[in-house]
Amino acid sequence: MKKIKLDILGISYSQSQSGAYALIFGEAGKKRRLPIIIGSFEAQAIAIELEKMKPSRPLTHDLFKNFATTFNISITEVIIYKFSEGIFFAKLICFDGIKEVEIDSRTSDAVAIAVRFKCPIYTYENILSAAGIVMQEGDESIETGTTKPESDTAAEGDTPDQYGQMTLKELEKKLMEAIDAEAYERASVIRDEINKRKGSK
Length: 201
Hints:
CATH class of the largest domain: Alpha Beta
CATH topology of the largest domain: Bifunctional nuclease domain
Number of strands: 8
Number of domains: 2
Shape: globular
Helix content: 25-40%
Structural class: alpha+beta
């Protein structure tokens, strides 16, 4: 069966399921989208790697990568191979230099690992046909940027407006505090403000 390459387009806060996120894939070079609902922890695990944030200590998926690479095991690809009763199934294709092994995985974990190994993500036509959405020109019903729940964007006592009043040095300090506290939604808001400042120079 021919594999179809998927690109990660973004992570959106789910409007239909409280506390959940929609991981949005796009069929490479085409207009079909594949949204997959994932939990908050898994969304954070994917987002911090996509956004190049560096936690002070390794998270679970970082630990997996460190363990695998220590023993010369690489993840060559991730395949979303099944869609049944609203649930997606994925597998990691692992290679140790001698043999290839497939390991079953939750899709969210597989994607969090894939972005760390920088390996491709694939699916099959039957899954895209069953669960994919064809985007029309001007259709913005599926967000393709990373958005966060408003309740998580600021620390207690902080608001996004206050970040605009802080100096660059203060923002960088706040960013490190947010990362250390594993408040990654807040960290991404602060990071965006820092990037906006640096880009305007």
